[in-house]
From TrEMBL:
Belongs to the metallophosphoesterase superfamily. YfcE family. The lineage of its organism: Bacteria, Pseudomonadati, Bacteroidota, Flavobacteriia, Flavobacteriales. Residues 6-139 form the Calcineurin-like phosphoesterase domain. SUPFAM superfamilies: Metallo-dependent phosphatases (SSF56300). This is Metallophosphoesterase family protein.
Amino acid sequence: MIWFTADTHFGHKNILDYINRPFSSLDEMDEVLIKNWNDKVKPSDEVYHLGDVALCSPNKLKKILERLNGKIYLIKGNHEKSTEACKNRFEWIKDYYELIMLDPDGFKGQQLVVLFHYAMRVWKASHHCTYHIYGHSHGELPDDPNSLSFDVGVDRHNYAPINYQDIKKIMKNKNWIKPLLREE
């Protein structure tokens, strides 16, 4: 199973007020995020984290990362100092990634998914039904029903990762229409 998430902000006390997260303490937030992650993600699953993993000491983050299930791939966000100190827990760390999903409904059995921490208005092959998933906005950027882009941050998804099949259902329900291009 393949999962996506962003903006966990483990150990970040100010995020409780900044985003108005419904937790009484930082410890409660971290524990709920860990529990929700592990309730969904199995040890053999893959998780693409689209940035802002944590704002805490590398030692604290290391202990949290050891408790999370799955093989984790990181797309860097704007708060990754501690995360980069724990780089061995990640399969890789990149600024941007183009993930090709095997999908019988996609073009030639594949679906291109562009992964970036920030929302983009256009991305590689966006005019050819590719998906773009992002974080950073903490659910405060209104979803565009006419764009195949989507915020996978925990603040939009009950503080848990979301899987590819659920993202695909969301994208299928959007009003996206392939634009007419001059070269076509």
